[in-house]
Amino acid sequence: MLMAGRGRLVPCVCLGLFGILCWVWVSFASFPDDQLPLEALDAVERGAFQPQSALSEMEFASISSYRGPGNSDRRSNKELPILLWWSGGLFPHFPGDTERIDCASSSCLATSNRKVQLYKRTVSIIFYGTDFRAYEAPLPRLRHQTWALFHEESPMNNYVLSHGPGIRLFNYTATFRRESDYPLTLQWLPSLDYLLAPVAVSLEEKNRLRREGLAAVLYMQSHCDVPSDRDRYVQELMKYIQVDSYGKCLNNKPLPQHLEDTATATGEERTFMNFVARYKFQLALENGLCPDYMTEKLWRPLHQGCIPVYRGSSVVADWMPNNHSAVIIDHFPSPKALAEFLKRLDENDDEYTKYLEFKNPKGITNARLLEALETREWGVNDMSKPNYLNGFECYVCDHENARLAAERAHRKAPKENPPPQPKMANNSHMGCPLPSPGYGHVQDLHADDGWLQTWPQDYWQSLDQAEGLESLIRHNKSNPLLLWKHIQNMAVSRARGKP
Fold first, then answer.
1. Which of 46-60, 61-75, 253-267, 445-459 has the highest mean pLDDT?
2. Which residue from 250, 261, 190, 195 is spatially nearest to 217, judged by alpha carbons?
3. Whole-model pTM?
4. Closest by alpha carbon to 358, among 396, 406, 393, 306?
5. Which residue in 320, 313, 319 sits closest to 291, CA to CA?
6. How many CB atoms lie within 10 A of CB 57?
7. Which keywords belong to this entry (predicted)?
C-alpha cells in the first residue's frame, strides 16, 4: 500500500560514478489525485521451467551513504519521474513496492505498483525478459513512455526477443550481448582472481585416477530437452571416447550418495566442485546458442583447472583468458575428430598443461577480458559495487531524465534545441539464431523427433507473437488479448498464399 507523509531510512543500491551502494531516505511515495491510474492488474503465476540465472546467486548488501557527484537533484518524490518494474517477481529493492533512487546524475522513483501505469510521470516501464509475454503487454503503449528490457537468462526463455519485431519494442536493453546498452556479458565471472585460482586437482592426481578407470571427460547435465540439443552431440561423442555422465541426461554413472543433492551443479559447494575437478575435461554445452551467451558451464571448469570442451557462444574466443584455454567444439568437423583430439591431449602432459598456463597472471593475454573486468560498473558478489539490476535501473533513470530535459528545452526554444532522437534496440542487442540439431542436419531428423517438434516451432511461433504485438501497438490497441486474433489472421493469410 502506498502511503503519504511517512518515511524511513532503507537500503537501496544506487549506481554512482564510482558504483557504490547506499543508504537513502525514502518517503513512501504518494501520487497526485489528478493522475488517474488503472486498476491494479492481477499477478499471473507461471509454472514454466526457468533455467538457472546468475541472479539466483547474487548477494545484496548496503554500505555507507552515497550520491553520484553529478547528481544535484533535490526534487521531492512527488516531482520525480517514475520507473515501473512490470515483472511482479522482480523488484530490486526491499521492503515495500516503491523507492526513491539517487543515481549518477539524477533521481527517480522506482516502483512495482502497476496502478501507476498510465501516470504522466511514469516515463519508463522495465521488463524482465523471461517474464515478458506479448499477450500480457501493458497496452495501449503511451507515447510518453519508453520500454526497457533486462534479460540475462538463456535465449530459450523467450524467443520473442530474438526477432526484430520483438526487440524493437524496447528503447533500452541490458542483456548478455555486448552490443546491448548495459552489457551483462561476464555476469557469471566474479573476478580475475576467480580465473587465477590454483588448479583444484593436480595433473599427477588426474593421471593416477585415469589409470584407475576414471574417464578423461565429464558430462554433468540434468536439463535434457533444450534448444541447443546438446545431448544428441554428446551421445555421438560417446561412441569415440569414454565420457562419465552423472546427471539425468545420458546418465551412465551414479553420483556418490553424499553428492546427490548437488547433482544439477547449480552451486559451488566445495565437495562437489572437488569431485568434478578430478576430470581432465568437462563438457560445457549451453542450453541455447547465441553470441556472448556464456554461463557458469564455461567459467567454473576454468576456475577449477579442468579444460572446458565448449559449445555455446559463437564468439567465446573473444572472452577467453588466452587463445589456448578452452577446446571449442565448433572448431572440429565431427564428434569423432574432437574425440581424437581429446585423446591426444590426455596422453600428452606437456600439451595438456599448455591449456592451464592462464593460471599464471602473465598467461592471461586477452586485453578485452581484462578491460571488461576492470571497467564494469557492477560487481558479482562484490560488496563495493552495485549489482547489475540496480545499475541498469539507474542507467534508465539517468537517460530518461536527460530525455525529459531535452524535451523541455525543445519546447522552450525549438529552433535552438532539436528534439531528442528516439532510441530503439535492434537484433544485435539480443537476436539469437534459429535452433539447429546438436548433431547432423535437420532434414535428416524423423518427423516425430521430440526436439524438432518443440524448438524450431517455438522459435517461429515467437515471431508471430512479436509481429502481432508490434501491430497492436502500431494500431493503438488497448486489449492484448487481440493478439491471438491477429496471429490467426496471419495464419489464414499464409494459407491463402498472401504475405
1. 445-459
2. 250
3. 0.86
4. 306
5. 313
6. 16
7. Disulfide bond, Endoplasmic reticulum, Glycoprotein, Glycosyltransferase, Membrane, Signal-anchor, Transferase, Transmembrane, Transmembrane helix
What's the chain's average pLDDT? 86
Cα separation of 245 and 234, whole Å?
A: 10
Residue pair 201/274 in contact (Cβ under 8 Å)? The answer is yes
457, burial (CB in 10 Å: exposed 0-12, middle 13-18, buried 19+):
exposed
C-alpha cell at 439: 548433431
Any idea how long the chain is?
499
**Chain centroid, CA 486 distance in Å:** 30
**CB 86 within 8 Å of CB 138:** yes
Grid coordinates of 41? 492488474
Is residue 498 scored above 80 in pLDDT? no
Type of residue found at 292:
D
Query: What values do phi and psi take at 244, rounded to 5?
Result: -90, 115
Query: C-alpha grid cell for residue 220?
Result: 554433468
The C-alpha cell that represents 310 in the structure block: 565448449
Rounded CA separation 382/404 (Å): 33
